[in-house]
Amino acid sequence: MPWLMKAEPDSRIVKGKDVKFSVDDFEKIGTSPWDGVRNHEAKKIMKERMKLDDQVLFYHSNCKVPGVFAIAEIAKEGYPDYTAWDPKHPYHDPKSKEDDPTWYMVDVGFIRRLAHPPTLQLIKHLATLSPSSALPKEISYIGKDGLEAIRSMQLVNRGRLSVQPVEQLAFESIVKLGQHGGWEDLIDQKQKGKSKSSTPAMKKSKGDADAIQKPKPSVTTDSTKKERPASVTKRSEPPSKKGAKQRDPPSGGSQGERRSKRIKVN
Predict the structure, then answer these.
(1) CATH code for the domain of 123
(2) Cα–Cα 20 to 30 A to 107, which of 22, 58, 70, 246?
């Protein structure tokens, strides 16, 4: 069975150590233990359900552009996460004992990058498309069944769990999106649509102000000219959110909210 596994690509220091693990780090290392997961549901998946050679979608989480950046595979089945016994490790757990381990991990092997990493923005957009509507031409190669499989992904419906099962058809569809691309135009059109829907209202405000002034040239005094631009400018420039990180969909509960935290191996 395929899986989706999350890691944080941006630097973040915990107990003096950088816990980032990007696709660049993964490709350089080749095979890495998936340590530091401290969620019982994710632990149980790694301990009991993941099998050798299972396919994996490697996902960048908690960053500006979250999405699936590579394909990987399970290189070693579940075994105790020994980092929990190390007091110096960022995710040390004193309750976990060597003779009675609480946490488990697997080894994951890098296979290849995706040329067009399917972003969370794309996946969430596809999940909003109606099954009865015609499939957008930009993603016609995944078929309606592929779209429906993506709509059913836990990433969409229960986003915060750091280790998630993925249906085979959903895995194949995500990989197709990552290999063939073409969907970038679909996202661009959506963003342009949002921009157009907000722009006319703002222009109208300014246009209306001008329309009120133009029929009465004799009333257009210096004081009138000074008042108009200030109020219109403030309405047409909403606060900027440039640089804000995209977040994964909420899980609806406290379980599964911790993402996979990986220690970069030098």
Answers:
(1) 3.10.590.10
(2) 246
